[in-house]
Amino acid sequence: MNIFRLTGDLSHLLAIIILLVKIWKTRSCAGISGKSQLLFALVYTTRYLDLVSTYISAYNTFMKLIFICASYATVYLIYMKFKATYDHNHDTFRVEFLILPSFVLSLLINHDFAVLEILWTFSIYLESVAILPQLFLVSKTGEAESITSHYLFALGSYRGLYLLNWIYRYYAESHYDLIAIVAGVVQTVLYCDFFYLYVTKVLKGKKLQLPA
Amino acid sequence: KSSSNKHDEL
């Protein structure tokens, strides 16, 4: 554990909490892509199956359980409890275009052709693109509430901080995992345009509004 | 070492 990974994990946790609290307090999931949240639930489920086979640390187990539970709670709020506020007319990204290629790629490029390992690889590939339905929704409506922007910033920062963690681990522990690194770079790059808007607009107190 | 079946990150 190093400072980059810890802050990355905390940033990830913060993102998930911001989203849950936002939906709960406003009693609304307007502006949130249910599809991205379904993809994240699928990501955590397929990645953390090793909870039953491999023990790493209490921290690791605890965080995995939190991520799984929080993602299912978010999906429940969007598709059940606050269904009436769900923006399904704008949430039209075709998720099969993300799920199927991620799955095929995980069969082709993986560390080991074993069920748990392929599901882990699939989750890494899928996570890297799982935010696309959300970014698509923001681009379709042309704007995002500040709280949604804070959520996206915290979620994007998490993988960016993991990149620093991987650089650190490469030098300090000679440890690296190319699959995670390449997918992590892709994931972080997808947020770059959003990061730019966040710094230039949201932090200056303006609403995130895309040019018409 | 690259790759191991034990993924210790989240």
From TrEMBL, chain A:
This is ER lumen protein-retaining receptor. One of its GO terms (molecular function) is ER retention sequence binding. Belongs to the ERD2 family. Its main location: endoplasmic reticulum. It is a multi-pass membrane protein. Keywords: Endoplasmic reticulum, ER-Golgi transport, Membrane, Protein transport, Receptor, Transmembrane, Transmembrane helix, Transport. It is found in: Endoplasmic reticulum membrane.
